[in-house]
Amino acid sequence: MRILDYFQPATVEEAIEDLCKSPHTTKILAGGTDLIIQLREGKLAPEYIIDLGYIAELRGIAEKDGTLVIGSMTTYTVIENDPLIRKYMPLLALAASSVGSPQIRNTGTIGGNLANAATAADSIPALLALEAKVVLTSGRGEREVAVGDLLIGSNKTNIASDEILTYIVIPLPPSFTYGTFVKLGRRKALAIARLNLGLTVNLKDNGELGKVTLAVGAVGASAYRVVQVEKLLEGQKVTSELFTAAGKLLAQVVADKLGSRPTAAYKKTISKAAFKRAIAKIGTECGRW
């Protein structure tokens, strides 16, 4: 099958109009770091391609009504260096900085990464920990979906064939909330994650832990929140024994998720190490432990 037409819409409305012509045989081109490879390898054979690169409204980051709204065509380089991201949610800046090479970060987009839904995608655990939602736009209107509900498997989402992922909406964290991102790979640069982890911790005045969000990737078909660990930590006084127990629980959740896979034992071990590193980084930042 060969590509019959290539569209370069200037607005979201034009893109939706183009997509509605043949939604089942059309692919969306965002940054292209995944799609172009899949096309070259023959894994995909669409008849039509819609390039979102000319839609200015899908680029950039803005603060709105207690949230940060990120256009789906915003690149990782922009996210890594954006002052609003660094101020309110530096863990997303950390996740963006860990993606591939500078060339990939300059072209790869956060919306494309989400839509591709790779098991080891670096941005997704960070977005899960930040309780992000996405806006999906079609000729039927818009719908908002939590990132956790968007993912349904490895390289699979519940984005309908006539929908375009247009925005990511992230609530601003409450005061005294700290977050970090940890990526473990075989090497420091250009590594596909063996495990990646996003963590946020809210601290109460009385020394107890408030709300905790923890998400991991590359340890299952898709990234996921680890609610078992969140519940263990929330409302507790900070002790080394508590954090040790949380690391052990995370390791067990990961092992159960991976089952009999050959990597299960290894990833059980490194998940505990990643959590230990993350909680130490937050402790250093907040000065509480």
Overview of the structural elements:
With 289 residues, this protein is α+β, with helices and mostly antiparallel strands. The chain folds into three domains: 5-50, Uridine Diphospho-n-acetylenolpyruvylglucosamine Reductase, domain 2 (2-Layer Sandwich), CATH 3.30.43; 60-171, Uridine Diphospho-n-acetylenolpyruvylglucosamine Reductase, domain 3, CATH 3.30.465.10; 177-286, Enolase-like, domain 1. The chain contains twelve helices and 14 strands. The strands form four sheets. It has a five-stranded antiparallel β-sheet with strand order 4-5-10-6-7. Strands 11-12-13-14 form a four-stranded antiparallel β-sheet, with helices on both faces. Helix 2 (35-40) links the parallel strand 2 and strand 3. Helix 10 (227-233) runs antiparallel to helix 11 and helix 11 (240-258) packs antiparallel against helix 12. The longest helix is centred in the last third of the chain and has 23 residues, at 264-286. It is globular, with a radius of gyration of 19 Å. The model has no long low-confidence stretch (mean pLDDT 94).
